[in-house]
Amino acid sequence: MSHSTLSTPTGSGPSSSGPARTDTPALEVRGLGKSFPVGGLFSRDSVRALHGVDLAIGRGEIVALVGESGSGKSTLARCVARLERPSEGSILLDGVDVLKRDRFQASRAFRSQLQMVFQDPFGSLNPAHRIGHFLRRSLAIHGKGGRSETETQARLEQLMDTVGLQADMLDSYPHELSGGQRQRVAIARALAVEPQVILADEPTSMLDVSVRIGVLNLMRRLRDEQGISMLYITHDLASARYLADRTAVMFAGELVEEGESLDLLANPAHPYTQLLVSAVPDPARAGSYDPVRRAELRQAVMASTGCAFDGDPDQACSADRPVRHQVGAPENRHWVRCHLYRPRAGAGGHALAADPAAGAPAPAGPPPSNISRKVSA
Ligand SMILES: Nc1ncnc2c1ncn2[C@@H]1O[C@H](COP(=O)(O)OP(=O)(O)OP(=O)(O)O)[C@@H](O)[C@H]1O
User: Mind telling me which SMART domains this protein's record contains (predicted)?
Assistant: First the structure.
């Protein structure tokens, strides 16, 4: 099955099932920002990779974070995983502000709540060790091993079974496994810790198209059967639609649109989301894909650190952060942050009162670069 044409099977896709959710999100980021110093030791220049990101993931929920290269997805993942210290904002795991709790680095408690699965299944497993070693080590570090060798072995076999691998592969070396099998081992290693949240940064992008669907199905099963919450980072909208309950769109370090995946991808409101959606082959939209138009838009987007869709130089985009507007019915939890957004008559679309950015001036930080030619969406 082609990855780009994944469809959602009736009744088993996003939003269909999962355990009961409580009000406290499993993971929440509030006002997250990250700037990197650039230009050498004495330079005061910085690149603003993230700005004012608010995102919440419920229990047993998968949220996809989509955006093109350089939009800030990995920086967000690295900040949430405590591999990078955010410049501002907070990260709450199960309601607890982890930046206050573990001020300098991630604690073992944090690691046992949140695990990461990386893009590269080839680089994340040391070739000198057998598969059993990686899983045993995770169990031991987090005190999840059994009281006896028999119990530990049973747990290892159970983990292998959960991710769809044969128990005899515990004795294999990474090079003896396929890419898809290695990514399953990486997921088993994360599961050994019994985390509440898995942060998966492009977990299928280096895999053969034919095995991607298996890994996506495994992730879906872990959500449905174990209630694990996931932040699924990808540039592939088709897999976001297939897997994620909700999708958030990142552009130039900011979330510009978010909603139930099926609704957001069927009715993209932000011109950047429309641009991304236009690249997904879809027989239902035959004829709507204009490669020249898309190339123009993409060029402008890639050349900009500000908003490339601001057609009017006096327009407020570069000066004022747009407020969030609800898109369509409230149950779709769909909002967009764009000055150009005009709701269809009678389709909802008021500014969201709770938006912390409502009426706020643009935050301090490096000004958006002036791109030579702005495009209107
Ligand atoms: N360590 C760093 N120092 C300076 N700038 C950085 C650093 N890490 C990221 N950036 C910048 O931050 C911005 C966001 O990068 P990031 O890697 O998060 O994007 P991304 O959406 O994950 O892209 P990709 O899909 O290619 O990984 C980019 O402009 C990038 O150049």
Answer: AAA (SM00382)
